[in-house]
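thought: user wants a sequence for this fold. calling inverse folding tool.
action: design(structure=
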């Protein structure tokens, strides 16, 4: 029996407090991972808060989708296997990143390896206890990806921000390298996407962000131009991209950003909505066919995408995103600071090396 420390919220919006919990021995193909690192993500804020704004003052409630407190947040998990069920077979010995978007294992999505689109997902840190803890139970070792000697604090982000950017870029991978690619929102995800797009040969990347710092960082990562939204007219974007804008990755996902994106796209262009800011998409329907637009949502990525992403990182290097480390016990404070917009880059919670939750 493993006694785990979990940093739990007893109710939506409630304080995050340490609790000792006895983890049941792993059954079947289950494994218990001793968590070394867990990233703190904006999604955690939404789960903690209990919902997303979906426009018109309405909310998508997590409680309606089967999320039940106590909440153990955290889906950006790195650790080591320390206990395994009887049917697991050989296990990775070194540090692993955990694929958190785990499905039911019984539906057509899960059969196709698209756990992240499963209607009965058991996502770690959302529907099942996550990584704000000393230990996490994972249903199958196939969700573990060997990270080799990659910095574990960086690898913690692979299952979420890295995967999200990689899978979103795959949705426009068919476009020619010279196509204009607009990245709206140049925070952690947007910057990762810029770096990745650059690594994969995209030449005409333009970032849009309200922050001068983030615009400067975007240029350093390989964007050809970076504009403030106030100056980002469709014409200015096309000029900055030096070519037709065929793809927009919207990491904000607000009414203003999707309006800008749909106005800026050339015929046949693709808008990928990733951000979860909230609101409604407003666009004249006849223009969708007339302009042959593709509007597609991208939500994290599949287990295969994550493996592909880790292989990409091993070959090309990790897109540099500033990562701050904090002790696991600071989970509640870090989440609150993120909610107040006080965190630049990403924060990763760390359990100290002797297994204590520092
Ligand atoms: Zn995340
Ligand atoms: Zn399923």
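)
observation: tool returned 358 residues.
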């Amino acid at each position: 029996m493993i006694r785990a420390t979990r940093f739990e919220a007893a109710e939506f919006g409630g304080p995050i407090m340490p609790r000792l919990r006895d983890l049941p021995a792993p059954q079947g193909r289950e494994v218990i991972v001793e968590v070394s690192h867990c990233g703190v993500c904006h999604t955690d804020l939404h789960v903690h808060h209990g919902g997303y704004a979906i426009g018109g003052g309405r909310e998508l409630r997590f409680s309606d989708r089967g999320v039940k407190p106590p909440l153990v947040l955290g889906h950006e998990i790195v650790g080591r296997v320390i206990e395994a069920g009887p049917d697991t077979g050989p296990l990775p010995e070194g540090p692993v990143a955990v694929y958190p978007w785990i499905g039911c294992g019984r539906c057509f999505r899960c059969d196709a390896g698209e756990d992240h689109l499963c209607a009965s997902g058991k996502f770690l840190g959302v529907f099942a206890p996550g990584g704000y803890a000393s230990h996490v139970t994972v249903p199958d070792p196939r969700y573990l990806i060997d990270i080799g000697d990659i910095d574990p604090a960086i690898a913690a982000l692979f299952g979420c921000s890295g995967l999200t950017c990689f899978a979103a870029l795959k949705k426009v991978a068919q476009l020619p390298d010279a196509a204009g690619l607009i990245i709206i929102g140049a925070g952690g995800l947007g910057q990762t996407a810029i770096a990745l797009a650059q690594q994969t040969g995209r030449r005409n990347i333009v970032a849009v962000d309200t922050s001068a710092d983030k615009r400067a960082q975007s240029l350093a990562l390989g964007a050809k131009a970076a504009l403030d939204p106030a100056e980002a007219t469709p014409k200015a974007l096309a000029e900055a991209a030096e070519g037709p804008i065929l793809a927009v990755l919207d990491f904000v996902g607000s009414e203003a950003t999707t309006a800008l994106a749909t106005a800026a796209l050339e015929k046949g262009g693709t808008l990928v909505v990733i951000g979860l800011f909230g609101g409604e998409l407003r666009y004249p329907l006849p223009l969708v066919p007339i302009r042959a637009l593709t509007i597609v949502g991208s939500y994290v990525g599949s287990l295969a995408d994550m493996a592909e992403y880790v292989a990409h990182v091993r070959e090309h290097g990790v897109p540099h995103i500033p990562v701050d480390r904090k002790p696991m016990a600071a989970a509640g404070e870090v989440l609150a600071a993120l909610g107040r917009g006080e965190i630049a880059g990403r924060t990763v919670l760390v359990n100290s090396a002797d297994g204590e939750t520092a």
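thought: summarizing for user.
answer: Here is the designed sequence. Residues 41, 43, 75-76, 160 surround zinc ion (ligand 1) (CB under 6 Å).
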